[in-house]
Model the fold of this input.
Amino acid sequence: MTIDTLKLESLLSESREIVLVGHFNPDGDAVGSVTAAYHYLKARGKQPRIILPSPYPESMAFLEPEDPRERIVICERDPELARRLVAGADLLVCLDLNRLSRTEYLEQDILQSKARKVLIDHHIAAETDRFDLAVSTIDVSSTCELLFWTLMAMPDIAGDPDRIPLRCAESLYVGMMTDTNNFSNSVFPGTFEMASRLIARGVNKEALQEKVLSCYSVSRTRLMGHMVKDKMKVLPKHQAAYMLLSNKEKDRYHFLPGDSEGFVNLPLAIRDVRISALFTENFDGKYIRVSLRSKNEINVNRFAIRFFNGGGHRNAAGGRLYMPLEDVPAYFEQALEAWPEEEKFS
Ligand code: 5GP
Ligand code: MN
Done:
């Protein structure tokens, strides 16, 4: 893909109030991309602000701006401030989201804002026509990888990773590392190239792995054991497995945001399991969060669109169900039954 860095450069240099927005339930790629953009812009003398719709995992707090006045604004905690920032922006940069609805509470505010709008994202079917500039492709591991190549093409970086601020480089590495499950899926040749250049730049890969991937509590590790031992159901007929996580169990295991990260991948370690699903009761009990993963040839993005009010990527997708948790197993089995073969392998 070609990236219109001339346009991006002029949008950035003409803007004073830049606001960076990530998606609801932010993962490593969302936090990584908004903080990477922040640290890059900060080094350019800008004072960008970051908004995330809901809280992010504690393990990523070290990526936050150091200036307490520029801390990430969490829309669920501080909706007024978030709305004020969107309304006052002259440039809004949305990262790691393909539809404005993924900002949950902010869609209308963003649409109504007079700010110019940029999208940087790696999901299928991005709403590119809602933006003045869209950097969108699915041929990268993560938004952080796409942002890395975008920055490399900017005139001030000019292909030299040493010109990327170290904090920005660390954020980029974290987003790529988490979205690829530490180099186990969605890895492209450019992903290794990015990693190699960032490590040469001075990113300490082991330190980041320890901070982000080996950071859990005892109770989270016990919850993981409970899920695999007591909750995982295998459906050999469909080469599928699933787990349900209720709010009661979350309370029992002192659940924190990010604690179920990785659970959905666990059943895929079983030889004949090719589809894995995790169904999590949302904290307010209003809906069930759906997480789907698959092995190579199976397209769970299509599965999420058709049956789970969501979407995502070929091998990692998600969505929502509006039904009691106890009704989910029957619904899931019916969905597997009803899923057209040609779509499954599309
Ligand atoms: P996770 O299972 O890690 O929550 O999400 C995996 C991927 O599925 C995300 O990277 C995102 O692309 C997609 N995804 C998750 N939840 C939703 C959702 O509610 N709607 C849509 N469209 N995509 C989702
Ligand atoms: Mn992503």
